[in-house]
Amino acid sequence: MEVQVAPLRAWDDFFPGSDRFSRPDFKDISKWNNRVVSNLLYYQTNYLMVAAAVVSIVGFLSPLNMLIGGTVVVLVFMGFVWVSHNKDILRRLKKQYPTSFVVVIMLSSYFLISYLGDVMVFMFGITLPLLLMFVHASLRLRNIKNKLENKMEGIGLKKTPMGIILDALEQQEDSINKLADYISKVKE
């Protein structure tokens, strides 16, 4: 299937008034995770633009350290994804605790970058955009268009860059399995 780039959402949809934001229910981690995944898929191009702006500013101020930091994070991420696909215990941990998996990747990257170069470049150039995305995705309430787009991605009608990353973190398999279960029940 061909990878499609999600459209850039309007600013008033991406960052509307405070009525479209609310604190997530910390007691229901599954619902919170669903909100984050849905928003990451729906607003992925907006998140990319915000991240590109932050990375550009930091990269302009310290280009070599930003290049080293970005390379380390990508290599560590790819290494952890490869290991987790080949080791069942890590695969289960990644699936059960996706946030912990990302934190381990970021901490590993942090220690490698502190050994190789400037830690502040890592903090502002790589971690800050990820933190901004996570906070927005956690607080932004979903709308009907958001839910529809996510269903299309979840059942395989569309494939986007964020969907590929979430698949690598195994965050979309559950929704596909739930949909398949529902379809099989309807057929019976």
UniProtKB/TrEMBL annotation:
<comment type="similarity">
    <text>Belongs to the PRA1 family.</text>
</comment>
<keyword id="KW-0963">Cytoplasm</keyword>
<dbReference type="GO" id="GO:0005856">
    <property type="term" value="C:cytoskeleton"/>
</dbReference>
<keyword id="KW-0812">Transmembrane</keyword>
<feature type="transmembrane region" description="Helical">
    <location>
        <begin position="67"/>
        <end position="85"/>
    </location>
</feature>
<keyword id="KW-0206">Cytoskeleton</keyword>
<keyword id="KW-1133">Transmembrane helix</keyword>
<dbReference type="GO" id="GO:0005789">
    <property type="term" value="C:endoplasmic reticulum membrane"/>
</dbReference>
<feature type="transmembrane region" description="Helical">
    <location>
        <begin position="40"/>
        <end position="61"/>
    </location>
</feature>
<feature type="transmembrane region" description="Helical">
    <location>
        <begin position="97"/>
        <end position="113"/>
    </location>
</feature>
<keyword id="KW-0472">Membrane</keyword>
<dbReference type="InterPro" id="IPR004895">
    <property type="entry name" value="Prenylated_rab_accept_PRA1"/>
</dbReference>
<feature type="transmembrane region" description="Helical">
    <location>
        <begin position="119"/>
        <end position="139"/>
    </location>
</feature>
<dbReference type="GO" id="GO:0005886">
    <property type="term" value="C:plasma membrane"/>
</dbReference>
<protein>
    <recommendedName>
        <fullName>PRA1 family protein</fullName>
    </recommendedName>
</protein>
<keyword id="KW-0256">Endoplasmic reticulum</keyword>
<dbReference type="GO" id="GO:0051051">
    <property type="term" value="P:negative regulation of transport"/>
</dbReference>
<dbReference type="Pfam" id="PF03208">
    <property type="entry name" value="PRA1"/>
</dbReference>
<keyword id="KW-0007">Acetylation</keyword>
<keyword id="KW-1003">Cell membrane</keyword>
